[in-house]
Design a protein that fits this description.
Elements (H helix, E strand, L loop, with lengths): L1 H13 L2 H19 L5 H8 L8 H26 L8 H12 L3 H34 L4 H18 L4 H14 L3 E2 L6 E2 L13 H18 L19 H22 L8 H13 L12 H16 L1 H7 L5 H12 L7 H5 L1 H22 L3 H6 L5 H20 L2 H19 L5 H23 L6 H4 L1 H18 L1 H12 L1
Antiparallel strand pairs: 1-2
Helix pairs in contact: 1-16, 2-4, 2-16, 3-4, 3-9, 3-14, 4-5, 4-6, 4-12, 4-14, 4-16, 5-6, 5-12, 6-10, 6-12, 6-13, 6-16, 7-8, 7-20, 7-22, 8-20, 9-18, 9-19, 10-11, 10-12, 11-12, 14-20, 18-19
Length: 499
Amino acid sequence: MELFDNLLLGLSTALQLNNLIYCLIGVVIGTAIGVLPGIGPIPTVALLLPFTFGLAPASALIMLAGIFYGAQYGGSTTAILVNVPGETSSVVTCLDGHEMAKRGRAGPALAIAAISSFFAGTVATVVIAVLSLPLAALALKFTAVEYFSLLVLGLFAAVILAHGSVAKSLAMVFLGLLIGTVGIDVNSGVARMTFGIPALSDGLDFVPVAMGMFGLAEIIANLERPAVRQVVSQKLRDLIPSRADLRAAFPAMLRGTVIGSALGVLPGGGAALPPFTAYALEKKVAKDPSRFGKGAIEGVAGPEAANNAGAQTSFIPLLTLGIPANALMALMIGALMMQGIQPGPQVMTEQPELVWGVIASMWTGNLMLLVINLPLVGLWVSMLKIPYRLLFPAIVLFCCIGTYGISNSAFNVWLMLGCAVVGYFFIKVGVEPAPLLLGLVLGPQLEENFRRAMQLSDGDPSVFVTRPISALLLLVVAVMLLAMLSPAVLKTRERALAE
């Protein structure tokens, strides 16, 4: 009954006119940036953070969530029609979706992608609602000791599942933790790494760092890439898939939804893991694996369902524990903190309208996406003709105004521009900046919980291994570390990431 009451509360929040409008804005922006290759939901959410400052918390989160799952829909459109994935999670859709388009079956491919995404999004919303209550109840038993261990686990899991070198990801996490210590220590009053600059006394503002490193850096890198793209097929007269298509796609949709829902919860899972795993599974269970890569409809349905389900279930650790599962969820934590809300399990009891409103808005948002995506597919594809050289100056101006507006500080603008240069450097040397952002967001929480744990135990560090939940979490960290040192595991990980 409690679940039913909570969902009703969420629906009453999500169906308010202003929240419906912000949800629509979010899914339209999400679809648009999903279509435009290279921009993606992380830079967009980073760029829009300052503009959510004046909104009600529920409206801000509903809009940002809509951008995230809307991008999954938009990315598949260009993957199928242009063979250019608008989003990382859509890369695998190119393999069979574009082959279907080349054979004159673009309509059924787009329709199956949209239906799979809608189906997975709806199921994932139920999963979030069902799992949220027991997880939040468990989280209420956590003290500072368990939180510290959970944060350590989250950071290490992010390193293992992140793309690229483990050593580089670890270095980025530690750099993020180090940057998180800049400013005046609230306990001792001692200035740490402020170099006598008054603007650094409160620490580095999360928003300009995220906007520069994820937003502007990504867009600068896109300026170097070729802008001319050719749409292979625009004949979309028959959007309705046949019964045979639906019969073949439905089991793949189910398997993709299960995989996406499970992998989306993992810390650091990223956008690419669920669709690639779903595609690999479809190839394994297929009677004739040679059809894959040549227009197999299961190769579209499974990955599309997995990426949408994964995008939505990645909200579970954020909403129940206050722990971000990936870089985008770290940005969501930034949005909550800008609204004066401290992330954690108490959010579910103190802000039920916000939490359940966001969960319920995923239903309305997915329905909006189904309606706006298929009939307007021509409009979305035409957006590919907008050259980056025209978008870039507008985005930079937008960012400067937004960053300055957070605290009327020119320092934030320079900080953002400096972070853009650093972020571009990271892209050029092949280092993923997402672990740095996780370190920056989780660093102050890690320090705070460590200090509280030490106060609770009178300075005895054995408290982390004598409390059962904390000991279990640290045991998982130790197993992960040992696995990372194993050459066989490292080789398997590199092969899996390469695939």
